[in-house]
Amino acid sequence: MATPAQTPDTAGETAYRRIRHDIIFGLLAPGSRLRLERLKGPYMASISTLREILFRLSSEGLVTAEGQRGFEVAPVSQQNFREVAAMRELLECHAMRESFRQGDVDWEGEVVAAHHKLARMEDRMLAGDRAEAETWKRYDWEFHHALISACGSSALLAAHARIFDQYLRYQIIAVIFRGKDAADEHRSLLQHALDRDHDAAVIVLKRHIGACVKHTLENGLIAA
Known about the structure:
This protein is mainly alpha-helical and 224 residues long. It has two domains: 8-73, Orthogonal Bundle (Arc Repressor Mutant, subunit A); 78-218, Up-down Bundle (Four Helix Bundle (Hemerythrin (Met), subunit A)), CATH 1.20.120. It is 71% helix and 4% strand.
Protein backbone atom coordinates (compact mmCIF):
# COMPACT_ATOMS: atom_id res chain seq x y z
CA MET A 1 0.00 0.00 0.00
CA ALA A 2 1.14 3.54 -0.75
CA THR A 3 1.93 5.82 2.13
CA PRO A 4 2.15 9.65 2.41
CA ALA A 5 5.93 9.29 2.73
CA GLN A 6 6.16 7.66 -0.71
CA THR A 7 9.57 8.25 -2.27
CA PRO A 8 10.03 9.54 -5.84
CA ASP A 9 11.36 6.12 -6.87
CA THR A 10 8.28 4.38 -5.50
CA ALA A 11 5.97 6.94 -7.10
CA GLY A 12 7.79 6.53 -10.41
CA GLU A 13 7.52 2.75 -10.26
CA THR A 14 3.80 3.02 -9.52
CA ALA A 15 3.29 5.31 -12.51
CA TYR A 16 5.35 2.94 -14.68
CA ARG A 17 3.19 -0.05 -13.72
CA ARG A 18 -0.05 1.88 -14.30
CA ILE A 19 0.96 3.18 -17.73
CA ARG A 20 2.27 -0.24 -18.74
CA HIS A 21 -0.98 -1.85 -17.60
CA ASP A 22 -3.08 0.71 -19.46
CA ILE A 23 -1.15 0.10 -22.70
CA ILE A 24 -1.38 -3.69 -22.47
CA PHE A 25 -5.08 -3.65 -21.62
CA GLY A 26 -5.97 -1.11 -24.30
CA LEU A 27 -6.88 1.84 -22.08
CA LEU A 28 -4.18 3.74 -23.95
CA ALA A 29 -4.96 2.83 -27.56
CA PRO A 30 -2.33 1.76 -30.13
CA GLY A 31 -0.96 4.77 -31.98
CA SER A 32 -2.28 7.33 -29.50
CA ARG A 33 -0.02 10.26 -28.60
CA LEU A 34 1.40 10.25 -25.09
CA ARG A 35 1.64 13.93 -24.20
CA LEU A 36 3.59 14.42 -21.01
CA GLU A 37 1.48 17.35 -19.83
CA ARG A 38 -1.71 15.30 -20.16
CA LEU A 39 -0.22 12.27 -18.42
CA LYS A 40 1.08 14.25 -15.47
CA GLY A 41 -2.22 14.46 -13.60
CA PRO A 42 -3.74 11.00 -14.18
CA TYR A 43 -0.49 9.18 -13.34
CA MET A 44 0.70 11.60 -10.63
CA ALA A 45 4.23 11.87 -11.94
CA SER A 46 6.50 14.71 -13.00
CA ILE A 47 7.43 15.45 -16.61
CA SER A 48 10.97 14.15 -16.10
CA THR A 49 9.72 10.94 -14.44
CA LEU A 50 7.20 10.37 -17.22
CA ARG A 51 9.87 10.85 -19.85
CA GLU A 52 12.05 8.20 -18.18
CA ILE A 53 9.06 5.85 -17.95
CA LEU A 54 8.20 6.24 -21.63
CA PHE A 55 11.79 5.62 -22.69
CA ARG A 56 11.73 2.49 -20.51
CA LEU A 57 8.51 1.32 -22.15
CA SER A 58 10.03 2.10 -25.54
CA SER A 59 12.82 -0.39 -24.80
CA GLU A 60 10.08 -2.97 -24.10
CA GLY A 61 8.37 -2.38 -27.44
CA LEU A 62 5.22 -0.87 -25.93
CA VAL A 63 5.95 2.78 -26.79
CA THR A 64 7.60 4.44 -29.76
CA ALA A 65 9.82 7.50 -29.32
CA GLU A 66 10.15 9.69 -32.40
CA GLY A 67 12.64 12.46 -31.72
CA GLN A 68 10.99 15.84 -31.50
CA ARG A 69 7.53 14.36 -32.08
CA GLY A 70 7.51 12.80 -28.65
CA PHE A 71 5.98 9.47 -27.68
CA GLU A 72 3.06 7.35 -28.77
CA VAL A 73 1.68 3.93 -27.89
CA ALA A 74 3.28 1.36 -30.18
CA PRO A 75 1.00 0.60 -33.14
CA VAL A 76 -0.25 -2.91 -33.90
CA SER A 77 -0.25 -4.81 -37.17
CA GLN A 78 -0.81 -8.30 -38.48
CA GLN A 79 2.87 -8.69 -39.31
CA ASN A 80 3.96 -7.62 -35.86
CA PHE A 81 1.48 -10.02 -34.27
CA ARG A 82 2.95 -12.87 -36.33
CA GLU A 83 6.46 -11.90 -35.21
CA VAL A 84 5.46 -11.61 -31.54
CA ALA A 85 3.63 -14.96 -31.67
CA ALA A 86 6.64 -16.66 -33.29
CA MET A 87 8.97 -15.28 -30.63
CA ARG A 88 6.66 -16.36 -27.83
CA GLU A 89 6.50 -19.87 -29.30
CA LEU A 90 10.29 -20.07 -29.61
CA LEU A 91 10.98 -18.91 -26.05
CA GLU A 92 8.18 -20.88 -24.41
CA CYS A 93 8.97 -24.17 -26.16
CA HIS A 94 12.61 -23.95 -25.11
CA ALA A 95 11.77 -22.94 -21.56
CA MET A 96 9.25 -25.78 -21.22
CA ARG A 97 11.89 -28.32 -22.18
CA GLU A 98 14.21 -27.18 -19.38
CA SER A 99 11.37 -26.74 -16.89
CA PHE A 100 9.97 -30.23 -17.52
CA ARG A 101 13.47 -31.63 -17.07
CA GLN A 102 14.29 -29.78 -13.85
CA GLY A 103 10.92 -29.27 -12.16
CA ASP A 104 10.34 -30.97 -8.80
CA VAL A 105 7.19 -31.91 -6.89
CA ASP A 106 6.75 -28.34 -5.64
CA TRP A 107 6.85 -27.15 -9.25
CA GLU A 108 4.18 -29.69 -10.18
CA GLY A 109 2.00 -28.34 -7.37
CA GLU A 110 2.39 -24.77 -8.66
CA VAL A 111 1.42 -25.84 -12.18
CA VAL A 112 -1.66 -27.70 -10.92
CA ALA A 113 -2.73 -24.74 -8.76
CA ALA A 114 -2.26 -22.26 -11.61
CA HIS A 115 -4.27 -24.42 -13.96
CA HIS A 116 -7.07 -24.81 -11.40
CA LYS A 117 -7.59 -21.04 -11.23
CA LEU A 118 -7.47 -20.70 -15.02
CA ALA A 119 -9.88 -23.59 -15.59
CA ARG A 120 -12.40 -22.18 -13.14
CA MET A 121 -12.28 -18.81 -14.90
CA GLU A 122 -12.60 -20.45 -18.33
CA ASP A 123 -15.66 -22.35 -17.11
CA ARG A 124 -17.26 -19.05 -16.15
CA MET A 125 -16.44 -17.54 -19.53
CA LEU A 126 -17.81 -20.58 -21.35
CA ALA A 127 -21.02 -20.04 -19.39
CA GLY A 128 -21.22 -16.51 -20.80
CA ASP A 129 -19.63 -14.45 -18.02
CA ARG A 130 -17.08 -12.20 -19.75
CA ALA A 131 -16.98 -9.52 -17.03
CA GLU A 132 -13.53 -10.42 -15.71
CA ALA A 133 -11.40 -10.59 -18.85
CA GLU A 134 -8.43 -9.05 -17.06
CA THR A 135 -8.52 -11.72 -14.34
CA TRP A 136 -8.81 -14.41 -17.00
CA LYS A 137 -5.70 -13.14 -18.77
CA ARG A 138 -3.82 -12.87 -15.50
CA TYR A 139 -4.61 -16.52 -14.74
CA ASP A 140 -3.64 -17.46 -18.29
CA TRP A 141 -0.27 -15.77 -17.78
CA GLU A 142 0.22 -17.43 -14.38
CA PHE A 143 -0.40 -20.88 -15.86
CA HIS A 144 1.94 -20.46 -18.81
CA HIS A 145 4.56 -18.92 -16.52
CA ALA A 146 4.21 -21.82 -14.07
CA LEU A 147 4.88 -24.29 -16.88
CA ILE A 148 8.27 -22.71 -17.56
CA SER A 149 9.14 -21.45 -14.07
CA ALA A 150 11.57 -24.30 -13.34
CA CYS A 151 13.69 -23.67 -16.45
CA GLY A 152 16.57 -22.34 -14.33
CA SER A 153 17.21 -19.16 -16.33
CA SER A 154 16.10 -15.76 -15.03
CA ALA A 155 17.13 -14.18 -18.35
CA LEU A 156 14.90 -16.59 -20.28
CA LEU A 157 11.97 -15.95 -17.93
CA ALA A 158 12.41 -12.18 -18.26
CA ALA A 159 12.54 -12.38 -22.06
CA HIS A 160 9.43 -14.55 -22.12
CA ALA A 161 7.56 -12.18 -19.78
CA ARG A 162 8.30 -9.21 -22.06
CA ILE A 163 7.15 -10.97 -25.23
CA PHE A 164 4.11 -12.45 -23.48
CA ASP A 165 2.95 -8.94 -22.56
CA GLN A 166 3.24 -7.85 -26.19
CA TYR A 167 1.26 -10.96 -27.21
CA LEU A 168 -1.31 -10.26 -24.50
CA ARG A 169 -1.87 -6.76 -25.87
CA TYR A 170 -3.06 -8.27 -29.15
CA GLN A 171 -5.35 -10.69 -27.34
CA ILE A 172 -6.96 -7.83 -25.43
CA ILE A 173 -7.34 -5.63 -28.52
CA ALA A 174 -8.91 -8.49 -30.50
CA VAL A 175 -10.98 -9.76 -27.54
CA ILE A 176 -9.78 -13.29 -28.19
CA PHE A 177 -11.42 -16.13 -26.30
CA ARG A 178 -11.52 -19.34 -28.32
CA GLY A 179 -13.69 -21.13 -25.80
CA LYS A 180 -13.59 -24.89 -25.28
CA ASP A 181 -10.67 -25.47 -27.67
CA ALA A 182 -8.37 -23.20 -25.65
CA ALA A 183 -9.53 -24.71 -22.35
CA ASP A 184 -8.87 -28.22 -23.69
CA GLU A 185 -5.39 -27.16 -24.82
CA HIS A 186 -4.63 -25.86 -21.34
CA ARG A 187 -5.73 -29.18 -19.82
CA SER A 188 -3.49 -31.03 -22.27
CA LEU A 189 -0.53 -28.81 -21.38
CA LEU A 190 -1.11 -29.56 -17.70
CA GLN A 191 -1.13 -33.32 -18.30
CA HIS A 192 1.95 -33.22 -20.52
CA ALA A 193 3.78 -31.20 -17.88
CA LEU A 194 2.97 -33.78 -15.20
CA ASP A 195 4.01 -36.55 -17.61
CA ARG A 196 7.19 -34.59 -18.49
CA ASP A 197 6.31 -35.10 -22.14
CA HIS A 198 7.90 -32.07 -23.76
CA ASP A 199 7.38 -33.18 -27.37
CA ALA A 200 3.63 -33.55 -26.88
CA ALA A 201 3.45 -30.23 -25.01
CA VAL A 202 5.20 -28.44 -27.88
CA ILE A 203 2.64 -29.76 -30.36
CA VAL A 204 -0.19 -28.45 -28.17
CA LEU A 205 1.48 -25.08 -27.53
CA LYS A 206 2.11 -24.49 -31.23
CA ARG A 207 -1.52 -25.31 -31.97
CA HIS A 208 -2.61 -23.05 -29.09
CA ILE A 209 -0.66 -20.03 -30.33
CA GLY A 210 -1.27 -20.70 -34.02
CA ALA A 211 -5.04 -20.91 -33.57
CA CYS A 212 -5.06 -17.57 -31.75
CA VAL A 213 -3.16 -15.87 -34.57
CA LYS A 214 -5.35 -17.51 -37.23
CA HIS A 215 -8.55 -16.45 -35.44
CA THR A 216 -7.33 -12.85 -35.23
CA LEU A 217 -6.16 -12.54 -38.83
CA GLU A 218 -9.06 -14.39 -40.47
CA ASN A 219 -11.60 -12.24 -38.65
CA GLY A 220 -9.85 -8.98 -39.51
CA LEU A 221 -9.49 -8.03 -35.84
CA ILE A 222 -6.10 -6.37 -36.47
CA ALA A 223 -5.52 -4.10 -39.47
CA ALA A 224 -2.92 -5.20 -42.01
